[in-house]
């Protein structure tokens, strides 16, 4: 079984060192941003924000969030081409969903007279909201769908990446308070091109559990 999809996914891997002289071309970044925007989510809720760390000044700010922990990921911040913060809305409300509904009207999916009806889907968000208004478990899951989609698109584009749950969410919340606007970043993604000699992970074979232990066809 070999096709383009499988070879993309076999070739993608988690980069451990980046070539700091290489930067992702603008047109590929635009493809990536559009792919991120097209990520699916439950009830089309899109309870996410993506903060792209591109400038040296922004990289410095992100670099500083590693002072307490996860230093093993820190060097990617300055060496990789870009870092994307994947952030979720921890308190998704009906007002947030109103933006989705109104966008659906603007995009011609929903007739304006059916606006109230379109809120029906929100019951699913309500089901996933704790008594205290916390929606994190559900909204964070949506954000990981965008992450998975992004990883696949990067593989297609031949861009290397490092997913990093090894980030300091608290310090990121403080440092990027204004940009995050109450959203929570628990995972970030370094993207760029691996270092030719110093990325030990390029030479290692892919390792996954046998298909028969993870997949059942009934
Ligand atoms: C949600 C998630 C969080 C991860 N966090 C880190 C991390 O903080 N640092 C790191 O070097 N790799 C991290 N990884 C990389 C995984 O270890 C890696 O994807 C896994 O071992 C499979 O290897 P592959 O990506 O090379 O196929 C993370 C991956 C995922 C999906």
TrEMBL record:
Keyword Nucleus: no
Nitroreductase domain residues: 10-193
Keywords: NADP, Oxidoreductase
Entry annotated with the keyword NADP: yes
Superkingdom to which the source organism belongs: Bacteria
Family to which the UniProt record says this protein belongs: Belongs to the nitroreductase family.
Protein name per the record: Nitroreductase family protein
Natural source organism: Pseudoalteromonas qingdaonensis
